[in-house]
């Protein structure tokens, strides 16, 4: 048995029917079922909560741990075929010189100031380009490291870390965590498929660009891309990208869906944040309005005396500004306390559910053949609180219970209790299930 929790898929009515008929092929070939069987009396978390995986769609695999030195290293001095590449600093200098020549050709003598400025700042432009290059590569490396770790973590552990972070730092990083959770609640995870497709197309274009760099048609030993003007290089790479992308309509759909969803969700998140901060500002202004008059009576004479006769008219303004600042700080502190309380409850619930999943993941997979060995809990019960079970699904569950009793060798764990949520089944369904449990010698709880 694997030592790591595996991904699960929800149990469907067809799965129950297949199990009832003794067909376990779906369990052997597909992903393990997330059966609604639990140890204890806790009901499953609702589907919209963060107890579900943060990202559920498959993404590109990163086999080896990303190396920082490889990420920030300068481009190689030669191509795969051995053609020489001009150093980055020389290419930047050539681009600056080309810009100067273009300015002189277009503007004539009027471009002398611009040209001299560009040539004087060419070294600084080269350094800035190098710094920008390293920063971009560093951020890409950080993203790859984070994704590499997330790809190998059990998803329950990722949820546990997020819940613990929300519980511990929800009052400190109010805006950031509120934006993250708001984006997730509004369906941000659904964008993952579009992001993966766009990233795959970027990799295809990158591979085509690398192949294009490895060309030396004039046979002078230097790559052709380093010997053409910047505008020609841009045109050439554009053509390479257009040739590499074979499904432009699909890419357009992915980019459009991603951008539209991003704008919609960002607007909704910003709107929710605006409401929260508007509430904070309203509280601060209310406090300031109540304290302004008494504080002005007490502090204005003292401040006016310190300012002198020529500037004493500034005393009420100074007092009012001080009260507003203090009120905003106080209101923000109250908002942090409220956010910390909510984040503690929310994060604790997410972390608690994830921790239970980590500890008892084997108890959730009792329908999986891989758990035949070494799994013998003392007491298990079938929990009908899951919304996906009920109605027609109840017939499959009852048939499953009958089949289980007829052939106990298929599923080893002992089942002695069946728990039913009253709001999930009608009275007739509850009575039918109770009668079946009585026949099978099972205890039925409601």
From TrEMBL:
The chain crosses the membrane at residues 129-150, 156-180, 275-293, 313-334. Keywords: Membrane, Transmembrane, Transmembrane helix. It comes from the Eukaryota. This is Uncharacterized protein. It comes from Emiliania huxleyi (strain CCMP1516).
């Amino acid at each position: 048995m694997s030592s790591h929790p595996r991904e699960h898929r929800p149990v469907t009515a067809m799965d129950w029917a297949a199990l009832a008929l003794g067909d376990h092929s779906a369990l052997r070939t597909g992903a393990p079922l997330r059966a609604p069987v639990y140890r204890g009396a806790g009901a499953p978390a609702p589907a919209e909560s963060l107890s579900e995986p943060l990202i559920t769609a498959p993404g590109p695999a990163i086999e080896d741990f990303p190396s920082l030195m490889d990420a920030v290293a300068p481009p190689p001095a030669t191509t795969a075929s051995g053609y020489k590449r001009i150093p980055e600093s020389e290419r930047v200098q050539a681009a600056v010189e080309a810009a100067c020549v273009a300015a002189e050709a277009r503007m004539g003598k009027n471009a002398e100031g611009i040209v001299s400025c560009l040539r004087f700042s060419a070294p600084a432009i080269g350094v800035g380009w190098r710094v920008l290059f390293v920063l971009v590569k560093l951020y890409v490396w950080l993203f790859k490291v984070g994704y590499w770790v997330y790809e190998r973590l059990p998803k329950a552990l990722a949820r546990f870390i997020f819940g613990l972070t929300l519980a511990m730092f929800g009052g400190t990083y109010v805006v950031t965590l509120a934006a993250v959770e708001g984006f997730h609640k509004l369906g941000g995870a659904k964008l993952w498929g579009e992001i993966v497709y766009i990233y795959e197309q970027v990799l295809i274009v990158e591979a085509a660009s690398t192949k294009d760099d490895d060309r030396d048609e004039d046979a002078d030993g230097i790559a052709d891309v380093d010997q053409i003007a910047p505008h020609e290089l841009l045109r050439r790479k554009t053509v390479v990208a257009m040739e590499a992308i074979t499904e432009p309509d699909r890419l357009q759909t992915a980019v459009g869906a991603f951008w539209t969803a991003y704008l919609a969700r960002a607007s909704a998140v910003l709107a929710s944040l605006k409401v929260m901060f508007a509430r904070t500002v309203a509280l601060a202004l209310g406090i300031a309005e109540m304290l302004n008059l008494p504080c002005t009576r007490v502090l204005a004479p003292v401040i006016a005396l310190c300012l002198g006769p020529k500037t004493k008219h500034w005393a009420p303004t100074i007092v009012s500004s001080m009260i507003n600042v203090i009120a905003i700080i106080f209101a923000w502190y109250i908002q942090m306390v409220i956010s910390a309380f909510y984040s503690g409850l929310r994060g604790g619930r997410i972390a608690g559910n994830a921790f239970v999943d980590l500890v008892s993941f084997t108890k959730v997979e009792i329908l999986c053949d891989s758990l035949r060995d070494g799994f013998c809990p003392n007491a298990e019960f079938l929990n009908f609180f899951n919304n996906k079970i009920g109605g027609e699904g109840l017939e499959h569950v009852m048939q499953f219970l009958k089949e289980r009793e007829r052939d106990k060798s298929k599923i080893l764990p002992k089942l002695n209790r069946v728990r039913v949520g009253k709001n999930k089944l009608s009275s007739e369904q509850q009575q039918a299930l109770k009668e079946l449990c009585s026949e099978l010698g099972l205890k039925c709880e409601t």
